[in-house]
Each structure stands twice: as structure tokens, then as C-alpha cells.
Amino acid sequence: MNLLEVKNLRKNYGKLEVLKGIDITVNEGEVVSVIGPSGSGKSTFLRCAAMLEKIDGGSISYNGEYAVKTTEPGYPEYAPADELKKIKSYFSMVFQNFNLFPHYTVLKNITDAPVCVLKQNREDAEKNAFKLLETVGLSGKDKSYPCELSGGQQQRVAIARALAMNPKMIYFDEPTSALDPEITAGVLKILKQLANEKKTMLIVTHEIAFARNISDRVIFMDGGHIIEEGTPEQVIDNPQNERTRQFLKTLNTAD
After folding, report:
1. Could you tell me the CATH number of the domain that includes residue 222?
2. 106-116 helix and 151-164 helix, angle to the nearest 10 degrees
3. Which of 144, 186, 204, 228 could bond to 42 as cystine, CB 3.0-4.6 Å?
4. Structural domains counted in the chain
5. What is the pLDDT of residue 168?
6. What backbone phi and psi angles, to 5 degrees, belong to 85?
């Protein structure tokens, strides 16, 4: 069974049609990278799949359970609140700009949702948080506040926070775009480690070499459509679509 299944997803902002019928499936243990130019709809797709944005058409299901489906054109129907809460527990999201609570310590940023949402015992949540901080290379930073950390450290806290919810799947929205190249390497190393552990991940990224190395599948989006989809070898090394070739050639020229 697909962990995530998206069918004919549509999203408008006023008269602007941003997503024009997106179909995506993600299987358990799979790493899928979404690449494409700015304004192609990548991040909007991610936000719709994570239910941070309401859709205008199509369906989204997790583990075969519908979060939202459209039975009549223009009238998407979301699952009842209790079902939606359960479905939202299947995934976590790591944002481009970290989205940590500035007035919480690192430890509280990581443990707050497990304690308040999952109703975990605080002691257990903190024990897990210390393990996760070790995993992301931030042992000893539990009492720090976000403002005392570098951008790369903040992003690693955000990854630990996402993992603390023990999700079936993690979304990453341009996880390195706000970071310096030198710091980026440390964050990408953690993502590669998660991929090796067979964590299910859907990553919107502009790091093409990283997408090639880590992904089971790569999706190229442009203009609100999926233009091309396949293995990294197919999409990045041997693209069939002219638009994909142009995009990758532009990046290579820029390098």
C-alpha cells in the first residue's frame, strides 16, 4: 500500500492556478526528491500534502485513509477532525526557515509536541530528545535557545523535532536553502543517514547532486505540472523532456 497517494491535486490563489493536477505516490521507505525552478509549485504541493494549505480539487490519502477528496468539482471534503488528527500524526515537516519557537529552549522545542500532542510522558520525551540531539550532532545544546545557534544547528534541531514525533514520513521543504554551503554539508549528511535508515522522505530541494545521490525517485515540476518522473539516472542524468534538459543545463552553466 502507498504511504502517500495524491491524485489530480489542484490549488489556486485567486485566479492564479498554481497546481494543475498533480499525481504522486510515495511508498514506505522511499526517498523522493522534487526539483524544479522557482515558482513551479513544489513548495505549494508540499504544503497542500501536509494540510497547511487547503486544496481546490483532487484527493490526498495516507495509508489508504483519505485526508481530503473531491466528489464534486470545486468542493474538496476533508476528513472529520478526529480522523484528520490521526492522519496528521503520520508525517512531520521540516521547514526552509526552521520554524523553531524562539522563546523555547532546544529541549522544549523537541519535546513540546510529543508531550502535548502525543501525550508522551515528559521524562520519556526528554530521554528521546537527548538521543535525537546526539544523532544530529548537537549533544549539550539542550538548554540553548534558537537565537544562540547557527542556521545549520537550528535546522538540525528542526530535524530532531520532526523525528521526535516518530512519523511514518517526513517532508523537507528546501531544507538547505537558508544555509551557507559549508553548513549545508552537515545537514545533507544527516538526511543521507536517515535515507540509509530507510526513513520515508519527500524532499523539495535545489541540491541536484544530493537528489541524485539520495533519491529512489526524482520528480521534476514546472508550471504547476509534473513534467518528468523516474530514477535519478533517468531524470537527472538522462532526461527525456526538453524542459527538464533546459533546467538542468541552466544549473550546470551556473555552476
Report:
1. 3.40.50.300
2. 20
3. 204
4. 1
5. 96
6. -60, -45
